[in-house]
Amino acid sequence: MTNDILEKMTIIFNLVTHFGVHHMRCFKNIAHLIRTRRMNHPKGYSQSELSHLLGYKNGQFISNVERALCNIPLKMLRKVSEVLDIPSEELKGAILKDQEETLNNYLYNLKTVKKEKTVEAEPHFAATGTDGI
To answer: Which of 3, 69, 97, 129 has its CA 20 to 30 A from that of 24?
Structure first.
């Protein structure tokens, strides 16, 4: 492997290990909303029941959403809103809060890494007087 490839792999590895992918993406607001609405719903859906109502084969999907590991696919939002009686504006608000936190994580945490010199984010070129091409 060339030094350039190794350097890029090191940057990626450092970003992932420093922050972890799960720390960069935020799903906590939608997770809390779905879990609260499912558990307090008059029908008291289990994770498995809700997953089946949404067209999934087992409860793992809702479990992952409620543990803030993933988001609800956009094509499922209307169905989730209907099944759990969540006003669309409330669902939208939770997703937008998560998106804002995710953007902040990427924008501001990467600056922290750069400032701490944990990872050099800019491309590094040899001092050849060229632009590296």
So the answer is: 3
Query: How many beta carbons lie within 10 A of that of residue 46, not counting itself?
Result: 13
Q: What type of residue is 12?
A: I
Q: Which residues of 101-118 are buried (b: 16+ CB within 10 A; e: fewer)?
A: beeeeeeeebeebeeeee
Q: What pLDDT, on a 0 to 100 scale, did the predictor assign at position 116? A: 46
Q: Which CATH superfamily hosts domain 3-115?
A: lambda repressor-like DNA-binding domains (1.10.260.40)
**3-class secondary structure, 17:** helix
Domain ranges of the chain: 3-115
DSSP SS3 for 70: coil
**Alpha-carbon radius of gyration of the chain:** 21
The residues, any chain, with a CB within 8 Å of residue 35's CB and separated by 6 or more, are 66
72-107 residue pLDDT tens: 999 999 999 999 999 999 999 999 999 999 999 988
